[in-house]
Design a protein that fits this description.
The structure holds 2 protein chains of 2 kinds.
Chain A: H1 2-14, H2 29-68, H3 74-79, H4 81-87, H5 100-115, H6 118-127, H7 133-144, H8 155-162, H9 169-177, H10 185-190, E1 193-196, E2 199-202, H11 210-241, H12 244-255, H13 262-273, H14 278-286, H15 301-325, H16 329-337, H17 342-370, H18 374-379, H19 387-396, H20 401-425
Antiparallel strand pairs in A: 1-2
Helix pairs in contact in A: 4-5, 5-7, 6-7, 11-12, 11-15, 11-17, 15-17, 16-17, 19-20
Chain B: H1 2-21, E1 24-28, H2 32-49, E2 54-58, H3 64-74, E3 81-85, H4 86-94, H5 103-106, H6 116-120, E4 130-142, E5 169-172, H7 178-184, H8 193-197, H9 200-211, E6 217-220, H10 225-232, E7 237-241, H11 242-251, E8 256-258, E9 263-271, H12 278-291, H13 294-300, E10 307-308, E11 341-343, H14 346-365
Parallel strand pairs in B: 1-2, 1-3, 5-6, 5-7, 9-11
Antiparallel strand pairs in B: 3-9, 4-7, 4-8, 4-9, 4-10
The chains are: A mainly alpha, B alpha/beta.
Signal peptide (chain B): 1-22
Protein name (chain B): Spermidine/putrescine ABC transporter substrate-binding protein
InterPro entries (chain B): SBP
Chain lengths: 434, 366
Amino acid sequence: MANTADSSQQIAHSAPVTGPVLGNDGRPLKASLAKSLRRQKLRALGLIAPLLIFVLLTFIAPIADMLFRSVENNIVGDVLPRTVVALKDWDATTGELPDNATFKAMALDLKEAVEDKSHTRLGSRLNYEQSGISSLFRQTGRKVKRLDVEETTDFVAAFEKMNKKWVDVENWQTIKAFSGRFTDGYFLAAADLTKGPEGVERVPENQQIYYTLLLRTLKMSMIITISCILLGYPIAFLLATLPLRTSNLLLILVLLPFWTSLLVRTSAWKVLLQQQGVINDTLVWLGVVADNARLELINNQTGTIIAMTHILLPFMILPLFSVMKTIPPSYVRAAKSLGANDWTAFWRVYFPQSVPGIGAGSILCFILSIGYYITPEIVGGTKGVFISNRIAYHISSSLNWGLAAALGTLLLVVVLGLYWLYDKFVGIDNVKLG
Amino acid sequence: MKMKSIILSTAAGVVAASAAGAKDMTIVSWGGAYSASQDAAYHQPYMKANSDVNIINDESSAEAVAKLRAMAEAGNTTWDVVDVVASDAIRLCDEGLAMEIDADTMLADAPDGTKASEDFGDLLVSECFIPQIVYSTTFAYRTDVDAWGGKEPNNICDVFDLEAFPGKRSLEKRPINNMEWALLCDGVDKADVYDVLGTEEGQQQALNKLDSIKSEVIWWSAGADTPQLLADGEVVMGSTYNGRLFSLIVEQEQPVKMMWDAQVFDLDGWIIPANLSDERKEAALDYIMFATDTQRLADQAKYISYGPARASSAPLVGKHEALGIDMAPHMPTDPENAKNTFLYNYEFWADYRDDIDAKFQAWLAQ
């Protein structure tokens, strides 16, 4: 590098002014500079390649795969290939049943599906869209084995005999509506919407949940972040100004919760906060509250806010501390010597310099709390749970991974949107970790 | 020279370990007292009889369905036998994640020669499910509540009676069971409960009834919550699995009593994951044949108060292994306790679970 730069300088001086500047190998200087820069970039890429490949394979690819499930809907076309083709010409809006040929296609498809039991899997997929389809497919699967496709002529009657739900147009409408390779059904569900006969509509009010949860998650994450700032700032200030020996000891106290299991910390809050718990007992003993009017500090939003503020506090204190460490104390002294009182010196001189730390801590706390679910699940009751609790429910309990993926994608988009807003108003350059 | 021998012995050790590993069997269950009872009644005797088998306990039953699906998608199922509740077994069967079981050829006959399918009877609720125990979700209450003036709740509807029985109650954070109890106490006949619950109005009716006690309910999601809440005095009554209440009342001697009224029977049992290699499948089936025979199921009841799923096991249920008390009166199936019972409707909940759950959660969030 140094060599190239030297020789190029030399040549630049001696070369004729017309035509491209040539290097001493006779090639244009610009090209050889670009070449050496490219080589440098490749080497840098080569150095980070192991990490890059690792992150791609273990992080980006699985997330992309999971998110893709929010639109993927191959199962209907795979299990019922003939039926899907036959249903193409059927007009779902007339309210009439599909023709006999479609029922026959369904019979042939189901007979094949029963072999590898994919009909029940399809049933549970479609049951997300309409209750009752799961048992319809399970029961029909048992009976369709005995159906003789060669002999039967009236398939509509044969299906009605197997289960009278087959002559219910609604079921066929659902199958047709979700017969494509891709679906927007999960995203609609994640936004409290549904596909009705007349297009997209809101689900009935008594089933709307995700909008409420998303709003609550954002609101409570904001409250938790703000309480972290309020509690963390004085501590970080203390840590940054105390002599090293004392501040190191205090820093260990801040870090101590990090080394304790999350579940243990959360359960400890349960013991403290419950109505027959330590805090309430003490308050009753002191006579601050009456025995029959104990405070409700847990199984509600208060519980979630208290426990999560405690758990996320180190993520606020550490960036704040490392930023405050770099603020020279002489600035405040200078301000004071120029006549500022304590508050003015702090507010006009010290505080503005610590803002990048607040920014970094806030982003950490906010983004971490948006994705939390263990702590809200344990101390949040019903009003203090987050949208992640629903995602966890759909992943591990209802097995509706498509909906979980859609909710996860929405959450990701919302967080990226907030990040963009943050960058626009605060500026991401103003964030410092130290 | 020394280096070489170290390498050799290490290599030999690895070979030996992988040879022994061929007989490892991973059995997944719920952990805690329940896994301990299975270990004592099934695993230890089985390993004694088959010295080449090494059983590894995994306590992941709570997330078994999701994990089995993930394993199947990755093409690497590491579990051999999995303990799940019946509704999960139905779902796993529907998803093609559990192997179908032919009860008469794959399970042991009763000692008197009764075929397994007859011995288990109605409890074989899915083609993939091998029932193990009958448990119930039921209520218990504290016996030292002053505000009740000496009365004790003995009817399921007392749970919904805040005037006679004030205080917090704990209910499970899901619609199943709660919706049924609400309808029962809102004048719906026991036989009609699921017909009513299948309609929009019926679901709303149940939620309205639950609404009347909503302010006094603490919602639980882990089976250990209610016993803890009862012991702490946080709630005056609450629902949970009867085995948990047994250990609270009998083993920990807390001032708590069982209510039993309108207890909801449910089943827990084994499934074998689909797509195991032939060798592992055979080993799993051999274990299942042993662990679900009449004597073994009766043995488990020595350690925990859940009723054995075989009719032929019931007469063999004896005394508690450590406390020496008779277990029969603590079984949910005991005639004295089972005067008024309710059977969980699997088919109904497989169909309506998502729909009603969405409504229930929306109602909770209000």
